[in-house]
Amino acid sequence: MLAELTPDQFLEWRVFDQLEILGERRMDYRFASIVLALRGGKLDDCVIKFGDEIEQMAEVMAPKQSLEFQEMLIDGWCHVSNILFEKSQKTKGTNGR
To answer: Where are the domains positioned within the chain?
Structure first.
């Protein structure tokens, strides 16, 4: 069927799909209501998220790190890196002689 549609017809179908309540979104809510009946909770929690919805949820749910915590991680990484560097320099010095 897609091979028979003109670009204008395809665009009309896309607009219709966005306006009409029938379609994939309605099916998502239909299955979410089944999950809700079996598991409980909120209906919106049972609907599978796609595309931009996932990114929006990730932004909301992402843990926020304080500046102090980030500085602590960097300081720890630098400290361990310096120890490893010093060990590698010592082993180079003893292996070279």
So the answer is: 1-62, 64-97
